[in-house]
Amino acid sequence: MESAPPTFLHIDMDAFFAAVEQHDHPEYRGKPVVVGSPPDRRGVVSTASYEARKYGIHSAMPARTAYQKCPHAIFVRGNMARYKEVSRQIMRIFESYTPLVQPLSIDEAFLDVTGAQRLFGTGREIAEKIRADIRAQTGLTASVGVAPNMYLAKIASDMNKPDGLTLVPFDQKEIEAFLAPLPIGRIWGVGKVTQKKLLSLGINTIGKLQTADIKLLESAIGERAARVFSKLARGIDEREIGGETDEKSISNEITFYEDITDRGQIEAAYKKLIDKVGERLRKAGYFAATVHLKIRWSDFSTITRQTKFPIPSDDDITLRETGMELLKKNLSNRPVRLIGFGVSGLTRTNRAQTGQLNLFDPPDTKTHEKRGRLSHAADDIKAKYGAKSIRRASDL
Predict the structure, then answer these.
(1) Which of 170, 162, 98 is nearest to 129 (CA)?
(2) Which of 148-152, 182-186, 219-223, 391-395 is least confident?
(3) Among 2, 27, 95, 108, which one carries the catalytic annotation?
(4) Would you say residue 238 lies in a domain?
(5) Whole domain around residue 343: which residue ranges?
(6) What is the pLDDT of residue 245?
């Protein structure tokens, strides 16, 4: 039997939080639903139903702005426990077709269905079956991209939302033709700064990037970026499900009800965010190479700062030390609206255990490992006796 070509799905639930609310509350169906902060408090929109999006409401928008755009919208605080329950149900559907599932968030995942095609049909047929199972078991809809790699599947799943299915060609020339009319912003990693540089060269579509002179690109955006984006412009992505990638990240942030100037309050909130991220990091089985700080001031201007660990870490002590150092360097006397902490460069392997260390400035690996064991022990105690069963002396 001829082996099936590599086939990937990217499945993205449609307006997930809002869709769950509309499913659980029939009276919400067909009406604009906004999940997130109440409009009379400081906070942002988490998810907006498609009915609400018609009014220009989108995620991360201040709730007060959303209310101004659509005063008759139904504002819901949200029920994360319920969303996680439905997410687990959906992930089980994915796993009934293939063990090669890589969740990206609570409401989207990549699936490698290459081997599953012998049992369940073509990639398109598997996508249709999964969408039908999701609808039957949860009452929700999902949009799916089917493609020869993860990058193309992700682009495709967003092309016919909601409740859509997009099949990317598998022939190289047809792939390039499929990508050609899309704006350069659809390429992974092409942010505002890179877009501006490419636009200055007259490159506004992926098709133009496909034919751009590599030397010209290198002079504008750097040698490495030029190579990466040239490959992506042609639809080339060699990653596999479960492969390590610096694009993985875990973060938490909080928007204060009122602008905060008290340093003690800001630091206390920030420490809680660090601890939450650390717990999530260890629960997922990752080590982090980089930590990130995010501060939004009262005038909505925002700064982000980051620093790298000598070796990837997952323990609370190292996360706190590094995170607090970042905060001290960047926190001013200006009123703070939002504070956030995150980690990226996630890996399943702690390089301290593989010997890949800096020979000229080797970190203290014994202390590093001891801190890791301590943090995991603390997690076990909290899991058994509750979150408040163990506290740091510095927090008392």
Answers:
(1) 98
(2) 391-395
(3) 108
(4) no
(5) 249-395
(6) 44
**Could you give the count of Cα atoms lying within 13 Å of 54 in the half-sphere of its Cβ?**
7
Rounded Cα–Cα distance for residues 77 and 37 (Å): 6
CATH of the domain at 385: 3.30.1490.100
How far apart, in whole angstroms, are the C-alpha atoms of residue 369 and residue 6? 39
**What distance in Å separates the CA atoms of residue 230 and residue 208, rounded to the nearest whole number?**
10
More confident call, 299 vs 107: 107
Q: Do 35 and 73 contact (CB within 8 A), yes or no?
A: no
Known active-site residue 108: yes
Which tokens hold the place of 304?
């982000």
Q: Which residue, of 152, 169, 186, is where some domain finishes?
A: 169
From residue 338, how far is each of 253, 335, 387 by CA, in Å?
7, 10, 24
DSSP 244-276: --TT-EEEEEEEEEEEE--HHHHHHHHHHHHHH
What is d(CA 283, CA 259) in angstroms, rounded to the nearest whole number? 32
pLDDT tens by residue, 27-67: 999 999 999 999 988 888 999 999 999 999 998 899 999 99
